[in-house]
Amino acid sequence: MDDSIFKYCEDHTSQPSAEINDIYRSIALHTAMPHISSTPYQGQLLRLLSLMVRPRLAVEVGSFAGFGAVHIAQGIPEDGCLHIVEANEEYEPLITEHLQQAHVAHKVQLHIGQGADVIPQLPDGIGLAFVDADKLNYERYYDLLLPKMAPGGLLIFDNMLWYGRVMEAAETDLRCDRSTRIIQALNSRITADPRVDNILLPLRDGLMICRVREDGEKC
Ligand SMILES: C[S@@+](CC[C@H](N)C(=O)[O-])C[C@H]1O[C@@H](n2cnc3c(N)ncnc32)[C@H](O)[C@@H]1O
Q1: CA torsion sign, 20 to 25 to 29 to 34?
Q2: Where are the domains of the chain?
Q3: Fewer CB within 10 A of the terminal residue: the chain, N end or C end?
Q4: Is any ligand 1 atom within 6 A of the Cβ of residue 157?
Q5: Per-residue model confidence as pLDDT tens digits over 16-65
Q6: Choices 3.40.50.150, 3.40.50.300, 3.30.565.10, 3.40.718.10: CATH for 3-212
Q7: Ligand 1: distance of its center to the CA of 133 in Å?
Q8: Which element (helix H / strand E) includes 103?
Q9: Confidence (pTM)
């Protein structure tokens, strides 16, 4: 998207609170790779989706410094829980600090571990799941999460355009790297899956939003 159009969109989107701005600044100051965090604009979309669904049970796979989590948590009811899974234990103190700063720590349970190990331990009935971790496991996350989703729940994958590489080569082209092939295959699988309605948005690196169909719901 043209930079000036994107700037216009950002300017005409609810602006982040002072706490959210402070957390975003803290990520820039205290991490070596701040660019892997969600941005305030993407955070606002996650927040809106969570506020629309009001999930009692939500999951984020790959939390980094907790910026996506603080937004999703804002839509979780007081008696709900957002389970967040992060493989790198070094991020734990920063995640905890940011959840407290956003006043949502009481609604979030942090699991330090691998997404593929933690997801099977989570209860069924997930109303919103956001996957933003290792791309090589994306198909696995889809297979693990979909049966655990509540009817009408949202299953969201980030990086589904993979910096445009998904368009460079056919899924079967061996010159294409593994992550690209996995993301291409998952985009095709999701689009053909009768269990979900989906939209791939060209937002940042591509956000795939799937809504799990309710019993008897037709295409
Ligand atoms: C793009 S960042 C996540 C950004 C975050 N979702 C946000 O909205 O700001 C990806 C994170 O996934 C974590 N990660 C990588 N492999 C993982 C795995 N197998 N299980 C859980 N987390 C993983 C990385 O350590 C990193 O912190």
Answers
A1: positive
A2: 3-212
A3: C
A4: no
A5: 999 999 999 999 999 999 999 999 999 999 999 999 999 999 999 999 99
A6: 3.40.50.150
A7: 4
A8: none
A9: 0.96
